[in-house]
Specification:
It contains five helices and four strands. The chain is mainly alpha-helical and 226 residues long. A two-stranded antiparallel ribbon has the order 1-2. It has a two-stranded antiparallel ribbon with strand order 3-4. The relative contact order is 0.02.
């Protein structure tokens, strides 16, 4: 603990940390040495010290010089390129240039939009013409169907009229009622018929009166009951 206190109070030691606990503990300590402050003078041991000039071989010196020249060339080229880019950006960021570019872009977009509208209008005209033709054909087909339906109804009506005209000769009216009565009396019809298992009809001969059914009165019925 005493060592940690001494290190923490030293002006040449910074960021010194220490931890210490009781039994079965681990003691950790970190130190970071810092440079001499800038306001302190040169040390007395280094005031009159003259550093030796390094001796570089001629081949190595030429290689270093070549690399340095290449570095300066690349650096000047890069700086010049950045300056040109900066000038171009200044020109591009000019409000007049920006407004002109926006106007040109608007005109270009408007031209493209007009071309699209013309193409869409042409396609729409073709589509509408096709739809109108299909609609016309459908209407004509419906008209033909209606004509055929009316023709069929007219034929059916004509057939009914013909049948009624044929039957009109047998209709009894006020004019021919006497004639119809005389005809019925002269040509009696017997409806007493029978049929056998073979499907043959047996009819009574005409001119024979039907069997008489005895008629009983109420008095006779009461006497029969008594």
């Amino acid at each position: 603990m005493l060592v940690a206190k001494l290190l923490g109070s030293s002006p040449l030691v910074t960021n010194a940390t220490h931890t210490c606990s009781f039994i079965n503990s681990v003691f950790t300590q970190s130190l970071r040495w810092k440079r001499k402050p800038i306001w302190l003078p040169t040390a007395k041991t280094k005031v009159f010290r003259v550093p030796k000039r390094p001796k570089i071989p001629e081949d190595e010196f030429k290689e270093i010089q070549r690399l340095y020249n290449n570095y300066r060339t690349y650096l000047r080229s890069t700086l010049k390129y950045f300056k040109e880019i900066n000038k171009q950006n200044e020109i591009q960021l000019d409000p007049a240039v920006i407004e002109k570019a926006e106007q040109e872009d608007f005109e270009k977009c408007n031209q493209i939009n007009d071309e699209w509208n013309k193409q869409i209008a042409a396609d729409r005209e073709i589509r509408l013409a096709k739809e109108n033709e299909e609609k016309r054909l459908k209407i004509m087909l419906n008209i033909e169907r209606q004509k055929e339906k009316k023709k069929l109804l007219q034929e059916q009506a004509d057939d009914k009229i013909k049948k009624l005209k044929i039957l009109s000769s047998t209709i009894i009216t006020r004019k021919n009622i006497d004639e119809a009565i005389e005809n019925a009396l002269e040509n009696p019809i017997n409806y007493n018929k029978a049929i056998n298992i073979d499907g043959e009809w047996y009819t009574e001969p005409t001119g024979i009166p039907p069997p008489k059914i005895p008629v009983t009165t109420d008095v006779q019925t009461e006497q029969a009951r008594q």
